[in-house]
Each structure stands twice: as C-alpha cells, then as structure tokens.
Amino acid sequence: MIDLDLISDEEVKALDSEYSSWGDTVHYSADPKVFRSCEGSYMYDSKDTPYLDLQMMYSACNFGYRNKRITDAVIDQMNTLPQLTPKFLQQYKSLLSKKMCDIIDQRFHEKGRMHFNVGGAQATEDAIKIVRNYTHRNGFFAFQGGYHGRTIGATALTSSFRYREKYGHFGDRANFVPFPYCFRCPYGMNCESCNHFCVKQFARNFESEYKAIYDPKTGECEYKAFIAEPILGTGGYIDAPKWYFKELKEILDEHNIMLVIDEIQMGMFRTGKLWAIENYDVVPDVMTFAKSITNGMNPLSGLWAKEKYISPKVFTPGSAHSTYCSNPIGIRAAHEVMSIVEESQHDLEREIPIKSERFMNGLKYLKSKYKQVGDVGGIGFALRIELTQEDGYTPNRELCDAMQEEGLKGDLTYNGKKCGLVLNNGGFYKNVITLVPQLYISNEEIDMAIELLDQLLGRLTK
Ligand SMILES: Cc1ncc(COP(=O)(O)O)c(C=O)c1O
C-alpha cells in the first residue's frame, strides 16, 4: 500500500517554502498546487479529485501517465542493472541507438548516430558542441520566440533576455530571426498576400558584406548553424506555414549553414508525426530530443546527427560527457518508448489527425462563442487558444493566467462529478493556452476538455 499522505498539503507547502530554493518555477504561483497521484490523462489531488491534464509535464508524458508498459520496463531495469558507469556498455543503450537510427533513417533516409545526455538544455549544449567542433565557428541563428533550455549556453540561443538578464553569458548570443507567426506577422504582412516575405528577408542577409554577417568573396557566413523549433513550444504553439522550412533550408544549404532542429517539445508525435520537422518535408543536420523520449520517467535526452558531423573521426571519444548521460533507467525507459513507437507509429499517425480535428472543432466552437478567443490553431496535439481582449487581437494575459488558476481549484464539473483542468500557457505575450494532451486521449476526454474550457471561459469572461 503506497502512503500518499505522509504529510498534509499545508505541510508540503510550508516545508517547500522554507527549505527549497524559490529559483525554479513553483513559486510563479502564490499558492502552488500539490498532487498525489496520476494515471492516463489525469492527476489527482489529496481529495482524489481528478484533474484532466492538458499540459502533460510540458509534453514529457505523451504516452500517458504511468503507462504500464514503460513503468514495467523501468521496474525490470531497477531489479537488474539500475546503475552503471557511463564508460561501460549496456545492452539497452546499443539497442536504443540502433532502434533510433533505424527509425530516423526510414524517415530521413540518412545514416547518423545517437549521442545521449540528461535534459533538454544539455542536448542543446551537445548540439552546440557538434556544430562548433565541425565548423570551428561559434555563431548560431535562432528564432525570436524560440526556447532551447536554461543552461548558460542554451540561454544564448533562447531569445528571451530575462533568462540571461541576471547571469550574463559566456558564449556568443545568437542572431535572432523573426519566426513566421502569421496571426501577428512580425513584418506586418498578411499571410494571404505576403509572397513569403519573411524568408526573402532572411535571404537578403547574403546580398552584400554590409549586411554584417557574410563575406561574398569567400562565401563564409559568421553563423554556421540555425537552431530551430519547427513549431514554437514555449513561444505559444505557433506552427510555421507549410512552405517555410523548405525555403529556409535551401538558403542555408546554399551558404553551408547547418540546420539544428530542436524536437525536445514537439517530437514524439506531438504534432502527429514522430518528428515535427517531418510536417515540413525537411531533413535536419542535427536533431535534439528529450522529454517524452522516456515518457517523463527518468531524465534522458540526446541528439541525432548526420554521420559526417558525428563520426568517431570527427566527434572523438570524450567530446561530451556527463555521469548520468546514459543512465540505465532512462535508457531502458527510452528503449521501451521507442519500441512502442516502432510498433504503433503508423496507427498514431493515422489516429492523431482524426482526434486533433475533433479537438479543433471544439476550439472553433469556443472561438465562435467567446470574443476573447482571438485565434485557435495548431497541428496534431500541439493546439492553441490565443486569448485576446474583445477586439479579437489585443493580447489578454490576465485571462490566460486566470484560466490556469481557476482550473486548479478542482471545482469544475463533468457528468455531475467534480474535477479540475491543468493548463499551461506560452506565447510572445503569455496569452496563449497551449493544449498538450496525451496521445491516447479518448474522444470522451476531448469532449470533456472542450466542456471544461467552456466552463472556465464562461466563468471568467462575464
Ligand atoms: C523546445 C525546447 N527545447 C529545450 C527545452 C529544455 O529542456 P529541459 O527543460 O529538459 O532542459 C525545452 C523545455 O521546455 C523545450 O521546450
């Protein structure tokens, strides 16, 4: 019998308040919520009230909370080889590398290799190493609105100054390029008639040496890689137009600039494809992943790179390392996740768009009902509600914050039973509810999600 109530919620909060640093994100909230258990699409509080979760540990649990198959694999690993120095080999690491390379090869038709680490930000750091090691140059392009983690290196590639503000930086800050956010076009264009202005603007960087980054005589660019989320995660679940990445990649290839795709949040079928970049029919040079690779069970992250960037002759032994970089429990969880992927990838790719459409139809209904729903959109299960003032455009962060707080009260109702709703926000103005259900969400749970969102909007927009 598991004791879920060792100490009361009030004691949990009091102890945390006094003995834990407030430097993480818990204390964004004046009254942080305590949860006791989870299963499938739900988290449960100390009164056993179910909370439908539409953020799933920031997309780290795509395969559902306490997915039995993955949990059983981890328990088996705990009972056999739970610890191992990373300089020794273990069967599941080799099997995982092969499985991932094979699946990526089937999709990208490229031979590559895997390199593992422990968190998303560390995978970003390793991607920086792969690029710098190969190109012998520091500079990266990155997107305005992009997020790649909070280590000192990763914050140099993440556009928000607030993550660097208190710490400065060791590395070179990226050259931040506007993301094609069509609802709020950074160039003030209309997406119907823009004639791909944004990508053309990027190409203009290479017109003359006076654009400050390129030497037309040598063909050398100061920036040798572009790191990109194919769909902005923290930036508000904004998907680029279909043509964008293909046109961008052509420009990058022309100037020998590598494309590093960050799949940390949008990978693992979040968008209906295993990798989000597949929606754009582009093959990256390097690709990072984390989060749902273990279904949130144990930290593991990593990258895949094309052979020429990561072959043992180029990325030599000891080029990157961490004590936990191939921790056997994370590796085993990832191996089980990738086995699920291998077996059910085609079913997932067929089913997610169907369920996504059902979800989107519900969101469109909410947009038609509430003036404060300025825009709804997204792709697969990376969906978004952009909250605005009644004019349908001016960002409404207050409503976005209030919906999250209200959902956590646990006093909504569905089919006559009390329940809550767990939401997360993102976006340039923090006014976007990002909807991140587990991949196996049922039709009934989708209807429940729309009903609960309707209740929240009804309460808060009166
Ligand atoms: C796109 C993306 N990259 C990198 C990271 C950083 O991952 P981690 O929080 O595991 O360091 C995140 C985290 O949310 C992310 O969404």
Structure description:
The chain is α/β, with parallel strands linked by helices and 462 residues long. The chain has 2 domains: 9-66 and 346-460, Aspartate Aminotransferase, domain 1 (Alpha-Beta Complex); 70-344, 3-Layer(aba) Sandwich (Aspartate Aminotransferase, domain 2). The chain is 34% helix and 18% strand. The chain has 12 helices and 20 strands. The protein has helices at 9-19, 56-59, 68-78, 91-108, 120-135, 152-155, 197-203, 244-254, 307-310, 328-369, 397-407, 443-460; strands at residues 37-39, 42-44, 50-53, 112-117, 139-143, 175-177, 214-215, 220-221, 223-228, 231-232, 238-239, 258-262, 286-289, 301-306, 373-379, 382-387, 412-414, 417-422, 424-426, 432-435. The strands form 5 sheets. Strands 4-14-13-12-9-5-6 form a 7-stranded mixed β-sheet, sandwiched between helices. Helix 4 (91-108) packs across helix 10 (328-369), helix 10 crosses helix 12 (443-460) and helix 11 crosses helix 12 (443-460). The longest helix is centred in the last third of the chain and has 42 residues, at 328-369. The N and C termini lie far apart (46 Å). Pyridoxal-5'-phosphate binds at residues 58, 119-121, 124, 147-149, 229, 233-234, 262, 264-265, 290. Pyridoxal-5'-phosphate binds next to helix 5.
